[in-house]
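A protein record pairs a chain with a discrete description of its three-dimensional fold. The following entry can be read in just this way.
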Amino acid sequence: MASAVEAKLAELGLTLPDVVPPLASYQPAVRSGVYVYTSGQLPMVDGKLSVTGKVGAEVTPDEAKELAKTCALNALAAVKSVAGDLDRIKRVVKVVGFVASATDFTGQPAVINGASELLGAVLGDKGVHARSAVGVAVLPLDAPVEVEVQVELTGA
């Protein structure tokens, strides 16, 4: 039976993807006590990036915002892989978003809103979080965005 969170995803026309396999020596997510920390999640779909390049150059801000949403979905899959059930999320504590930016691009917060808005739509008040949105020169595989998430779980 699907969790309430996964039912909400379905209501929004979304499905939880498989966990993206690590690209190097790390785990997609690690649990420590009641917290789950995800590794940076790229906007991978079916094992590949649909778009590469810098936001503000090869990638539009609107495209990048959608990619940030995909990163957040991948982060939720990583959380589920160690928490067992997304209904155990007590709250999203922190989101960190990285945007591979053209040198004159300053709209990183609007791009990472894609991840923040998805988490809010899926989790309601539990999805409200602290956040950083950072512009960087380049990301792995020339991805336009990368998002990591920290959540607190119910129980021990």
